[in-house]
Structure prediction request, 149 residues.
Amino acid sequence: MEKIIEKYKGKGFKLTPQRLAILKYLEGNTSHPTAEDIYRAIRKAHPTVSFATVYNTIEALSKRGELMEITIDTLRKHFDPNPTPHHHTMCTVCKKLGDVFVDYSEAIRLPSYIADWFQVTGNHIDFYGVCADCAKRSEKKEEKPCLRQ
Prediction:
């Protein structure tokens, strides 16, 4: 917790007990939680925390570059406490998100008719597919003999 306090101390970011709980939850979290996920987790230890507090904290962290909003899931906003440039995967079955730390900037070139008037300063690629756990579950279902004939 002291590492978190030191990180935000003197940056004009008020460190209330609720905000510290949010920051602790996000520290090293690779699950790409939604605001609702964060709220449910924090509320266990801080039953009086409001969703507005969670959302306002997320907004403040995003504006400071400490938290990245992920738009891979069209139904829900997810957040990544690792703001370094990277890409994401999403399982289309269970909706689990993952990180991809590969630089594709050299592999992807814009067509010249776009590159002539547009200078690329970054990119973000979303990969959709089926995770290993969902693939295994699907295989097990297929292994069972069909009872209908």
